[in-house]
Specification:
single chain; 11 helices; alpha+beta; four-stranded antiparallel β-sheet
Length: 398
């Protein structure tokens, strides 16, 4: 049998690649082809809040849907899909032949679950993600174990291992828009699971390792879920809206989201009550540089927020330290809300005294924009790299 025939005969790998591609097609068809608004991704993607509510299938179904990750061509998420299925198709059959079909299937199931649980335990609770990167990283981890344990004399396995390390390092370290914990956790899980599942080890060792992985998942989920109780109670939901949202504007009972012009995406409107997403023709609001509160005009100037009185004099100057004021919003006659992007937080400033009187940990990758519905006390914050719209109920605050 030729090398190509053996490669295509890796049934588990081919099945996983096919399922991932079909999942992407279903994802795109369920919404619209050119905009990243779909229902399948929201139902199957990784979401800490839904996991804590008992939707455990998301630990594995996250591999069937793909978030948009730049650079993007053809349609949102397509290059993310290609970046995952190509290395999986190249490395997967090699690992599958080494472990055997049954053990490789068990390996993917266990390592994929462990990687997602680790992300659930460490990443911010508002993280929403989709992609088969976990399976790719786990498979690369198993491939590294194969090379190191066999110590082949031929150079190409070592070259392939070095390429795998470079790919994993790039994915974990150099991409701000993805969760490094999920990728790194999956890589380590792959290494850990490949050792006991090695075909040279007794079947009882493999069975014990697989059972242990499932026990870890079952025990860890309730324990990790309890940490969501410590999340600021004002954080209500995180709605995936599209690639790189950059502006937020409350219009009636909808929140209009506009995206970075480089994405060529139309704006969308999110229903405040149901979170339903529809296209929007509303023009983007101008960048907010000044808001009036407490008889002062407040502006953002890099790492400081300045309150200026009617005569033009600086009444208050608030330093954000290592933070940076990405956006401002008026929270009422006396309040100013400031998005500190690097600090991943939302600050409330008393417009009269200039005191920072409240702080909300947003847990987002890069929060960039905010608008507040002063009628019902809800704030909406856009996460640039995470592609989400965070809803906060400010009436619950301390």
């Amino acid at each position: 049998m030729s090398a190509v025939a053996r490669h295509l005969g890796a049934r588990v790998t081919i099945s996983v690649v096919a399922a991932t591609c079909l999942g992407y097609v279903a994802q795109r068809v369920s919404g619209s082809w050119w905009r990243d608004v779909d229902h399948v991704r929201r139902a199957l993607g990784y979401s800490a809040r839904e996991l804590a509510a008992g939707e455990w299938w998301r630990l594995w179904t996250v591999n069937l849907v793909h978030d948009p990750v730049p650079p993007e061509y053809v349609a949102p998420g397509f290059m993310h899909l290609v970046n995952n299925v190509v290395p999986l198709f190249l490395v997967g059959p090699v690992v599958e032949r080494h472990l055997g079909g049954a053990r490789y299937a068990a390996f993917l199931f266990a390592a994929g679950g462990l990687g997602s649980v680790l992300a659930f335990a460490i990443d911010p609770p508002t993280i929403y993600a989709g992609g088969a990167s976990g399976l790719v990283m786990a498979t690369i981890g198993a491939g590294l174990y194969m090379v190191v344990s066999r110590r082949p004399r031929r150079p190409w396995p070592w070259v392939a291992a070095a390429a795998g390390v470079a790919y994993a390092t790039y994915s974990i370290v150099d991409r701000a828009e993805i969760t490094a914990v999920a990728h790194g956790g999956a890589l380590l899980s792959g290494l850990a699971m490949a050792i006991p599942l090695d075909p040279n080890r007794p079947r009882r060792v493999a069975a014990g390792a697989f059972a242990s992985a499932l026990v870890i998942v079952v025990v860890a989920m309730p324990l990790v879920s309890s940490r969501l109780r410590d999340v600021d109670e004002r954080v209500v939901s995180a709605v995936p809206v599209g690639t790189r949202p950059s502006r937020v504007q409350v219009v009636g009972d909808h929140v209009v989201v506009h995206f970075d012009p480089s994405t060529n995406q139309r704006g969308v409107a999110v229903d405040e009550r149901t979170n339903a997403i529809t296209p929007s023709a509303t023009e983007a609001a101008p960048d907010t540089t000044n808001v009036d509160a407490g008889r002062l005009s407040w502006s953002r100037r890099g790492s400081t927020v300045v309150g200026v009185d009617a005569s033009g004099g600086v009444a208050h100057r608030i330093s954000l330290g290592n933070g940076w004021a990405y956006d401002l919003a008026r929270g009422g006659d006396e309040w100013v809300w400031v998005v500190d992007g690097p600090g991943r937080r939302l600050l409330a400033i008393d417009g009269r005294t200039g005191d920072v009187v409240d702080e909300v940990d947003l847990g987002l990758i890069v929060p960039v924009a905010i608008d507040v519905d002063v009628d019902d006390g809800r704030a909406w914050v856009a996460d640039y790299w995470g592609g989400r719209l965070l809803e906060l109920d400010l009436t619950r605050g301390p």
